[in-house]
Amino acid sequence: MTVGRPCEVQSCALPYRVQDGDKVEVLLITTRRTGRWSLPKGKISRGLSFAASAAKEAYEEAGVLGEIGSMSFASFRKTKRMEDGRKHVIEVWVYPLKVTRCLPHWPEQGQRDLRWCSRDEALVLLQDGRFGDAVRLLRC
């Protein structure tokens, strides 16, 4: 029997806000490499919980701060193609982030586009259906 390498776990934030009392909007970002719409995600930072790592990614990639949920509400595995052509399996844990502040400056500003949109619009823009599944599962 062959045993494969364990997959890398990443944490993902699903930034959202509620407008006019009940209208939920989610914040999408573009990836740096392909420019596709996505959600802030990345490797688990040493010394941080999965949830805190997700909040850190949202700050670095989208310039937002807020209340991060302590429990992941969605997870999935995906294959990521590396720059050298190799494929790498990652497991992504998604955490809700209720945005309380949008910053004027952040670490990856200018490297990505940001877009607040309705859930329905997000489902159209997100080409990776697994991110769309997370948008559908979000409970505010």
List its traits:
alpha+beta, eight-stranded mixed beta sheet, globular, Nucleoside Triphosphate Pyrophosphohydrolase
Please bin the fraction of helical residues: 10-25%
* Counted beta strands: 8
User: How many DSSP H or I helices?
Assistant: 3
Strand content: 35-45%
How do the helices and strands follow one another from N- to C-terminus? EEEEHEEEEHH
Mean pLDDT: 92
Helix and strand layout, with pairings?
Elements: E1 8-19, E2 23-30, E3 37-38, E4 41-43, H1 50-62, E5 64-68, E6 74-81, E7 87-102, E8 114-118, H2 119-125, H3 129-137
Helix pairs in contact: 2-3
Describe it for me?
The chain is α+β, with helices and mostly antiparallel strands and 140 residues long. The protein has one domain: Nucleoside Triphosphate Pyrophosphohydrolase (Alpha-Beta Complex). Helix content is 21%, strand content 42%. It has 3 helices and 8 strands; from the N terminus they run E-E-E-E-H-E-E-E-E-H-H. The protein has helices at 50-62, 119-125, 129-137; strands at residues 8-19, 23-30, 37-38, 41-43, 64-68, 74-81, 87-102, 114-118. Strands 1, 2, 3, 4, 5, 6, 7 and 8 form an 8-stranded mixed sheet that branches. Strand 6 (74-81) and strand 7 (87-102) form a beta hairpin. Helix 2 packs antiparallel against helix 3. The longest helix has 13 residues, at 50-62. It is globular and about 45 Å long.
